[in-house]
Amino acid sequence: MPPAAPIYMDYAASAPVDPRVAEGMSVLLAAGPHANPSAQHAGGIEAGKLIAESAAQVGALVGLSGEEVIFTSGATESIGLGVIGAARYRSRHGRHVITGLSEHPAGLKSCMALRNEGFDVTCLEPDSRGVVTGEALRSALRPDTVLVSLMHVNNEIGVVQDVAEFGSLCAEHGAWLHVDAAQSAGKLPLDMRRQRIDLLSLTAHKICGPKGAGALCINRERIPRIEPLFFGGGQQRSLRPGTLPTHQVAGLGTACEIAGKAMESEGLRVGALRERLWRGLSKAGGVVRNGAGAELAPGILSVSVEDVEGSSLANALEGVVFSLGSACSRAQDEPSAILRCLGRSLLLAGSTIRFSVGRFSTEREVDQVSAIFERAVAGLRALSDERPALGDGPGYVTRGEAGRRNVGDWIRLEARWDRNEAIETAFRVLGPPILAAAARDGATALKSAGRQLAVDEWNKRLNDDLKPPPEARSLLLRARDALQACLRGGDN
Q: Among 99, 173, 248, 295, which one is most buried in terms of CB atoms within 10 A?
């Protein structure tokens, strides 16, 4: 039975809004000030003061003043502005940029956009723990390197990278450092001056603030200016023009202040919950912890599960909200960069799940998820058992199988025959839910029609019933092949 209410374990994707943040935003939406914060009348001045107070709250979280904060719509925009704006501004000094293979797409694709503009981009590969090392960065830095953009905490597996070491190396070589702090701001200590970070991107919705609000923090002691990405009325020193949403900005400021004050105690509490969850999940056996051996952010736990297929596991974890953490594309037939660096196989990478806990998570929820997980894994492993499902008995048994276990598209159909009648059928599957549905249907069709089953007609009906997306049609062909092999006689 699933829990009565979904258990939220996806804080790394987006955290629930703190009631204190929501209340403050609601007051502003209802009572104002409603004026444009750039206006010079009384209402505008009042709104402008709220913007300035929020900027100070954000700056305090990262060791800067409020004058060094540029508000944006979120981390993706902040990263694009920081990376592209800084590289373009410094292009007269050099056209070499360094990033990491395991960066969030916002950072990686911003660097690829620079490559299209003629910049030379070096992508650093993480080590076997999933961490980009200082030595790797040192080896990549060149006299014409103008910008390095690396994340503080990896969004997939939660490993923490040494941004202070990155900052020192960049300063020594005259390169600017941009840090993607979407997963670390408000959770790990940040002091941009001490750590020699030049630009830093963060977002509200990872720290129990509203979606649609973020900031690019610019260390003005080192950064004179960056180039804007678009143009308008000159707000925010013309770096990010447009009318600021006062309530959103205020929500970000309050979220930063709350997170900063509670960072140490919450870090200890959330880290303990993460370890409790790991102990619970590991009881299932064959559960591999990603990022083991590296420092980990308090709330993120990434695991890969042996002998199960990822989407089937996700489907079986009913009532739990989490992320499939593989970033693995069947079309590309390879796992994400960071899982490749960890040495995960295609099947193991595909069964990677990211649980993330946070401010409102409880021990009871953690224990519930552990129990659901253990039952789900046991059920899927029983379904994918390589041993024959049909043992000794009357008649004879045929088996037909197709697909590959190491890819996660394997199916086997079995039938016990009395002449042309299938008196018993069974199936085994290691694959997505649609393959399991096809196997179940195939076993039922065999039992009903026996040797008279028309496979092509069955396959057409199955496609009509299941309506598979284009990328899943090959899975139904696997089911058809297994059914045909079982009818032909298999290994009777």
A: 99
